[in-house]
Amino acid sequence: MTVGDWVIVAKPTMASFLPENAGDMAAFLETARYSSSSIPQLEAYLDEQVASGTHDFEANLALLKLYLMFPEAQDVARIGMILKKAVAALPEPLLLQCRYLVPKALIKAQDDVAKTISLGKLIEGGRYEQFWTEGGEEFCDSMTGLRQGVSNAILGCMARGYTSIQVDRVAAALNVSEAEIPAALEASPVEGEIRDGALKFTATERTRKQNNDTTSELQSVNTLLKELMPLARV
Question: What residues does the CSN8/PSMD8/EIF3K domain cover (predicted)?
């Protein structure tokens, strides 16, 4: 990294989305995924993720499914936590999958849940500045590690849509000064360098894989919808 020239290549890391006990949780889900007795364990595991800034999407998706199956056990605060984690995981389609597992009546009745979904859609749609003007900073302050997650999400979405973008637009998208962009990029899994007044994204194998996997990821969403259609009517 050369700070004076703003040349920086970030090293990708997804550690914040891979908790150490993910293997144990995967084994647990194999045997107890659809049992109401699993809800307390999954809720406790979610609380650990919130405290540590980690994210185990499969476990959280399983918890949302159980909330649909056993609505009397629904915990609105934890549903909000899962949605916020999914926003931080953008541009992966996790938020889309989660939205189909949250009853529309609950979204209408719970302002925090509706707000999280609305803000997530703004990032999905590339309306980054609107995200901040509609409460993005307050949203980021509501959970450990969420500010960094949102920054990563915005950079990830931009990397999928641009090969190069002017630094003033990046600063506005991240709601930071231009001088803070190198640090934000270095802390993210997105690779790129800043030169000639623009952020130029690196066509890494990871980025190419993400682009190539978009179709299969959306197909997995369709599969999820078919599987959960009866539950969604609960």
Answer: 97-181
